Amino acid sequence: MIPRVLLADDHPVYRDGLSMMLASTGDVDVVGTAADGEEAVALAAELRPHVVVMDLRMPRLDGVKATQRIVTERPETGVLVLTMHEDDESVFAAMLAGARGYLLKGADQTEILRAITAVASGEVIFGPALAGRVTRYFARLVTAQPPREMPFPQLTAREREVLDLIAAGLSNQRIAERLFLAPKTVRNNVSNVFAKLQVADRAQAIVQAREAGLGH
């Protein structure tokens, strides 16, 4: 599946150049472009992209607030920040807003394409200049807090991921698109989840999952 991508950047030269570059590869489908955060939120709802490539400093609504609104309204859409700002405040504000990736505008075509593909498949990715900083930040958090027990230890990692998306309100078809899985594979995972949780239907699974903190 070719990821559907929406580009949001208030600099038309950079935005249009990035759009042409990505479209020329044939590896992504650029479905639209936005010149500000408000337009990005509106187009994300209308065009339903897999990934929004988001600048941070934009008029009307900045990239952090736009990211927060997009992932709240469409949790199946991943946001990849592509910006010139590499300060800690910008990086962690974007992460807290729900961005799944963060690259600097000096990234080359290969790096941007790899990041888009990773975010579209549910991964979290950061450019080389930021990865070490992020890793150290979360390492400090882990050592400062007692570990929490993983919910539903009877589930595999994939089954827990499927349950998380069920709790977020996604249908089997949307889960298949989100995780780049065959619909039959998703159905099998859903059946396994129901059996292991000993629930009769989707509604009961959602209740258990949300009580355990999934689906947000």
Map the helices and strands:
Layout: E1 4-8, H1 12-25, E2 29-34, H2 37-47, E3 51-54, H3 63-73, E4 78-83, H4 88-97, E5 101-104, H5 109-120, E6 125-126, H6 128-144, H7 157-167, H8 172-179, H9 183-197, H10 202-211
Parallel strand pairs: 1-2, 1-3, 3-4, 4-5, 5-6
Helix pairs in contact: 2-3, 3-4, 7-9, 7-10, 8-9
Please characterize this protein's 3D structure.
The chain has ten helices and six strands. By secondary structure, it is of the alpha/beta class. The protein has two domains: 4-143, Response regulator (Rossmann fold, 3-Layer(aba) Sandwich); 157-211, Winged helix-like DNA-binding domain superfamily/Winged helix DNA-binding domain (Arc Repressor Mutant, subunit A, Orthogonal Bundle), CATH 1.10.10. The radius of gyration is 18 Å and the shape is globular. The protein starts with a strand and ends in a 5-residue tail after the last helix.
